[in-house]
Structure formats: structure tokens, C-alpha cells
Amino acid sequence: MFDKIGVIDFSVIIVYLVGIVAVGCYAGLKKRREGAANRYFLASHSLRWPSIGLALFTTNISCLHLISLAQSGYDTGLVMGNFEWLAVLPLVLLSLVFVPFYMRAKVATLPDFLEKRYCRACRDWLAVLSIIAAILFHIAFPLSAGWIALHGIFGIDKWTCILILCGLTAVYTVVGGLAAVVWTESIQALVLIAGAILISVVAYNKVGGWDAMTLALDQTQQMGQLSMLRSPDVDKEFCWYAILLGYPVIGIWYFCADQTIVQRVLGAKDENHARIGPLFCAVIKILPVFIFVLPGLMFYVIVGTGKLDNLAQVAVKTVEEGKSGETVTTLIVRGDASVPEPREFPFRKGEVLDLTGQFKASKDHPVKVVCNLPTKLNSDGRVPADGMVKLPEGVIAVTSKESYGLMIEKLLPSNGCFGLMAAALMASLMGNLASAANSISTLFAYDLWQRFWPKTPEHRMVIIGRTAAFTSFALGIALVPLLDLYENIFASIQLVISYVCPPITGVFLMGVFWPRSSARSAKLTMWAGSAMGAILFTITTFHKWKPESGVWHWVPGFLYETPFMLMAFYMLAACMLFQLVLSFCLPKRPEEDPQQLYLANPLNALKSAGWPGLGDYRLLAACVVAMMLGLYWVFR
């Protein structure tokens, strides 16, 4: 694909990379006159609401989201957009409820908050979990998804891509600290949105507009792809009640209790800036459905209707239960002129789909086929020859994970657009890496190092934080080969998070909303809840991998048949009930929580003065929620 990359495209990429590193270093060095640790970890409490909102968005939206949301749009339509629109609820909760406590407690980290509300044991446990989660979810997984996209677009070698991006990100992150991260994230958010809007507009024009897309979906009886809320008969794993009950559990942990996200709020200039920043991010979170997910669905229609040369698809049309109880998937093969006519094939698990006679292709005129069948990839991101599909010579099978890369390759002209999209992908990946590294350095320095060496001078704390940031990059890179084995990275992340977050979400909610919640109950709930999540994840995962094995026959059907998001809700309910009972058995001691970091009355969260007029955080929060409800009414 290098023959499609012109001088202009390379110039855009180089200018972006050099510029973003320079801006990051300048932002950090500009603050050197402030206290060393305060400057490095919390940007001297100088962040304003636009920077906070843009930084929150960029931290949340990584290459992983960019690629996997387009993949989900291609595979299942708009349903995964719920992870974006429902983020409005925890962001509003962060603004209205959690921000006042974080600002009043004057904490540098969220584990620090838990110590002030509960005890040191809670702080230690959350610090360790947060560091592991940041390395896994914010460094390793994004790298695993990001290299596939950049390799697919430009042919960049896997390790060259990973090492260059990590090296450039480490320069301004380690030198500049949080100020550098937030400055660069603000720029990267704008680049990311601009690039995504560009490819969305091109895809919209290529598909022929909204009416043409809906007509094509209607002809194949797939209008349900445009629905956000689905019945369990249509989509059991992501049915409407599983999403509405389970997402808040994940969302509250991610947006209200995860250091990587909330650290931007902790660096705010004052409480009002800290409140408005998340609300601004909530408004921006409306966009990903239209500029990340919907383009994937449009690309699905574009390929299926044969509007792109040398590109075809093997798509799932229906999934039904056969006479003997096995799952029968009806597949449809269609695409450009290389497919003489669309054909349907029944497919059962374990079979090999023979498509040798379905394509007109050769070595001189190769055809790419986007295939949704589950299969592992080679080291270059391609489907192996011994996979579930038998193809003729000249036909290259790729998975829907490469949808975004194919959109860039097939839809964009080489006049700087390629360079802009490469910059957008790099922006999302570098922003995620920078956020995670800075948060890890803060957690390690404040929550772990200071515990054992409390008299460490500020300048040495910064050195320790920088060392932790470098180490986190190294560990994340080391995990990439293992994570490359996953077929659907985004779904795998959500699955793991759903078993990790319930005890953390429960402890934070109980601590803020129930004054009688005790330190001992919180400590035991975090330990027991984490153990419960690890056990349930292990036994359900092994049962799904080897369902025919007699070793796991004893596993109750409830555990592996329940959608994982609904399981997260059940786990949260169990953790909160457990902590409630323990708080009566092990009541709060007089010396606990001297700052009274809880709400005696939930309405007290709305009593602090906001900016006058339209800048009032309460009015803005109501407008954001109303906007979300209106969108759900349209796309219900």
C-alpha cells in the first residue's frame, strides 16, 4: 500500500509527530517553576474545563475504540454504540457527585481518597488493581489493536510501529507530566475527531446517503442493525436490559473510580472547572456512534452492494438452532464483480466453508474478502491458510477487525487524507499511552512508594514516577504477543472489566451515599469481591473454551448463559449487600473518615454554587441527559 502514500501524506505524519512531541515537552517545561511533584503529577492544578473535557475524551477513545467500534458497526450495527451514549450517565455522576468529594479531600489519586474515606488497606488494594488495569487496558490492549491498523494501512512492521510510538509518547509524557499529557490530548482529540468525520463523510457519500443504506438493509431484512436497544431474542449478549443494568457498573468504575480517567479532573483549576469538564466530555461522547460505529455499518453496506472493486464479504445473515440442537449460521457471499452472484451457505461450528468456486480472482487481480467467521490470525494480521474458510488462489481473507484500515485504503484519496487518518490513529494511540503512563507514575509514587519512604523529596518523587512510566511501557509491550491471540479485543476487554469492577464500584457508591459504611466492611468487600470475580471469570472462561470436557460439567448454566454485563450487575448487588451487612456487624469507628466524605442527603451534591446563567453545572447536566434520552428515542 506504500504506492498510495504520497509526499503530502508523509509530510502530514512527520509534522504531526514532531509537533505533538514539541508541544508536550513545552507544556511540561513551562511549569518547571512550580513545585516539582505538584507540577508533574497534577499540572499545578491549572487545567480548565475545555482541556479536561477533551483530555477525558482522548483518554477514553484510543486506537482500540476507533478500530473495534468500526468493526462492531460492520458486524452487528449500532448496538455497541451503547458503550458511548450511556457514558453520559457516569460522567454526569462524576460531575455532580464525585467531583466535590475529590476536590474537598485534596487528593492526588483515587486510592488516596479511599484511605481518607475508609482505611490504608483499601488504598493499597485499589492502587495495585489500578496499576495492573492501566497497563493491561490502556497500554497493552491498545497497542495490540493499533499495530494491526497501522500495519494494514502502511505496511509498517509490527515492532517498529510499537517501539516508535511508545518512544515518542514516552519523551513528552516522562518529561512533561500531566500538563504535557493534557495539552497533547486536547490537540489529539481535535485531530481524531477531524479524521473520523472525514472518513464518515466519504463513506456516507459512497453508500449513497441514508435512504440508500436503509433500503439495502431492508432488502436483506437487517433493519435491526440500526437499533440501539434490542430484545434478547435478537441479541442475547447485548439485550436492552443487560446493557441498561450492566453498563452503569462498568461506567461508574471507568469514569468515576479509574485513576487514568479521573486524574484529569484532579488537576482542575477549581471545582467548577472540574464539574464542567466531564459534562463537556459527555457532549462529545455523542459523536462516536456517528463517526466510529455508523461508518462501520455503512462500509458493510458498501462492500455488500459491490461498490468497491476487488472487495467482497462473507457475512452472517441469520443464526438459528438446528433440528439436533446445534447452531446453524446462514452466511451470504457477495461483493464486487469478482462474485458472479450472491449466494447463501449454511454453516455449523467445526465445518470448513469451501468457497473455491465463488470468486473470479487470480494473482494478477487479487480480491480481499472480509470474513466474519471466528478464526485466529497469523502474525501479520491475516487469516491462516488452515482456517475455517477454503479460498481459491488470488483471494485474501481478512477479518472485520481490519474494517477501518480497509475504509482508509479503499475510500480516501492520496492527497493528504491518508496522512490525516494516520495522524488520527496515532493520536488516539499516543493519547491512550500517555494517559496511562502518567497515571501509573502518579499511583506508584504517591500510593506505593510514599507509603514506605514518606520523606522522599519532591524532585526524587518525580524521578521515581518517570521510572514507573518507562516500566509500564515495557510491560505493556511485553503483553502484546499474548493479547494478539484474542479474536475480538474490545469485547474481551469489556468481559474482563465486568468481572473486575463490581467491588470497586460498590465500595465507592456505598462510601459516598451511605454515611454508616465502615472501613472494615469496605476492605473485606474489596477482597471478597475481587476473589469472586476472579473465580467466576476463570470457571466460565474455561467452560466456554472446553464445553465438551467433563472437567467443567458441574458449572451451573446460570454462570455461562447469563450475559456478562448482567453478571456485572448481579455481582455489584452482591457486593453492596455484603458491605451493608458487614457495616452493621463491623460498625464504623469514631476515628474513621474525619473529613466526612459522604452525602448525608443526596441532594446536598447540588447545593454548591455554580457559574451563573448557562454555565451552571446543574442546568448543563440536565441538558446533557435530555439530549441522550432524545437520541435513544430516535434510535430505539
Model description:
The chain is 64% helix and 6% strand. The protein is α/β, with parallel strands linked by helices and 636 residues long. The chain has a 5-stranded mixed β-sheet, with helices on one face. A two-stranded parallel ribbon has the order 4-6. Strand 2 and strand 3 form a beta hairpin. Helix 3 packs across helix 16 and helix 8 runs antiparallel to helix 16. The longest helix has 50 residues.
Task: Name its key features.
single chain, 636 residues, alpha/beta
Query: What general outline do the C-alpha atoms trace?
Result: globular
Radius of gyration: 25 Å
The fraction of residues assigned to DSSP E strands is: 5-15%
How much helix is in the residues? 55-70%
Largest sheet: 5 strands, mixed
What topology does this entry show?
Elements: H1 7-30, H2 36-42, H3 49-60, H4 63-76, H5 82-85, H6 88-105, H7 110-117, H8 120-154, H9 158-207, H10 210-219, H11 240-256, H12 259-266, H13 271-284, H14 287-304, E1 311-321, E2 327-335, E3 343-348, E4 353-354, E5 367-371, E6 389-390, E7 395-399, H15 403-411, H16 417-452, H17 458-483, H18 489-500, H19 502-513, H20 519-545, H21 557-561, H22 564-585, H23 617-634
Parallel strand pairs: 1-5, 4-6, 5-7
Antiparallel strand pairs: 1-2, 2-3
Helix pairs in contact: 1-9, 1-16, 2-9, 2-17, 3-9, 3-12, 3-13, 3-16, 4-8, 4-14, 6-11, 6-13, 6-23, 7-8, 8-9, 8-15, 8-16, 8-17, 9-14, 9-16, 9-17, 11-19, 11-22, 12-16, 13-23, 16-17, 18-20, 18-22, 19-20, 19-22, 20-22
Task: Provide a short characterization of the protein structure.
The protein is α/β, with parallel strands linked by helices and 636 residues long. It has 23 helices and 7 strands. 64% of the residues lie in helices and 6% in strands.
